[in-house]
Amino acid sequence: MNFKEQFPVLENCTYLNTANSGILAKSIQEWRSSHDEDFMQMGSRFRISQADFLQDLRQHLARFFHSKEENVFLVQNFSIAFNTFLDGLSRSHRFLLVTSDYPSINYPVESRMFTYTYAKSNENLEQDILDTIKSFKPSVLALSLVQYTNGIKIDFDFIKRLKAEHPDLLIIADGTQFCGTEDFNFEESGLDVLISSGYKWMLGGYGNGFMLIKNHVYNYLYQEKTTHSLPKEAFLKDKKLLSLCFESGHLDTLNFGTLKQSILFLEEIGFDFIQKRLQTLSQMAKQAFTDRGLLSKEIIDRPAHSSIFSIAANAHLIKKIEDANIITSQRGAGLRISFNFYNNEQELQQLLKVIDEN
């Protein structure tokens, strides 16, 4: 596949910024145009089959992430879903968070009346989680699968072991910086809840996301509402309690349809290719950045890493990278570089040339 043909933005710049926003494929934009053309021509008749349309997306998500279809919920983004989730939990829960994690994870917990503490986001993240569990005894662990500032990726085998050793620990993950980078089996993972926005590595544009849960999670949520009968109106008669909570109101078929198209697009490319490309670029970039003294110890000392990096960069270097038309993001104390499958070794070398000339 010619990625520059599918992603016209790649003709205009070196795009190393998927951690900020994924880019839109030409074929998906053409589908979006066709969708809105139908809406324009049909008016309200266009929405007659919207329930089947959205259920079809749930089926695609369930297949894509190896989840149960009945446990897939469509949400506008991670933040709305996570806040809704927290509002359904008892305030007696004790949360273990990760320092410097995405504010949409930590702040909603901190600002409610939960008890919480932190594990350190460093080269010993997994061990610190274990140590903190022993001393703090949390009932919930909430964290990003990949840290948004520096790309630290949690060890998935560790999550499985953790769940086996602490079956009552509710493990909630933000997959926004992970979903779309490799094949992932939710049912076999140690996660109880996976929530993700679709606009980064899923390449699904804005205004869509999803939540996957395990069966037992129903027992944690909105227990006080179970004493109230559900709405009797015909258009809501098939809605479950959690559907009313997480999928309230009208869902936009343009945004959620785009997510389905992105799933089909990623499946066409294939995760064998995507994962190998990301692993190759990640290993090459980590070695190159390490050789130049641009990475922190916490990244260098971890055996595996995502394709997101935070490199040391002063204002002069940042300006030179911008002038070279290389798109990145400033996050935290460093410059965030992120490689996706549509990037290649030549683009890494282009970045390194600018760095070496600084």
Question: What tags apply to this protein structure?
Answer:
seven-stranded mixed β-sheet, three-stranded antiparallel β-sheet, 2 domains, Aspartate Aminotransferase, domain 2, 12 strands, globular, Aspartate Aminotransferase, domain 1, alpha/beta, 358 residues
Structure description:
- The chain has helices spanning 3-6, 26-42, 50-65, 78-87, 103-110, 125-136, 156-165, 241-246, 253-269, 271-291, 297-300, 315-323, 345-356, and strands at residues 14-15, 72-75, 94-98, 115-119, 140-144, 170-174, 193-197, 209-213, 308-311, 326-327, 329-331, 334-338.
- The protein is an alpha/beta fold.
- The strands form three sheets. A seven-stranded mixed β-sheet has the order 2-8-7-6-5-3-4, with helices on both faces.
Helices and strands in order:
Elements: H1 3-6, E1 14-15, H2 26-42, H3 50-65, E2 72-75, H4 78-87, E3 94-98, H5 103-110, E4 115-119, H6 125-136, E5 140-144, H7 156-165, E6 170-174, E7 193-197, E8 209-213, H8 241-246, H9 253-269, H10 271-291, H11 297-300, E9 308-311, H12 315-323, E10 326-327, E11 329-331, E12 334-338, H13 345-356
Parallel strand pairs: 1-10, 3-4, 3-5, 5-6, 6-7
Antiparallel strand pairs: 2-8, 7-8, 9-12, 11-12
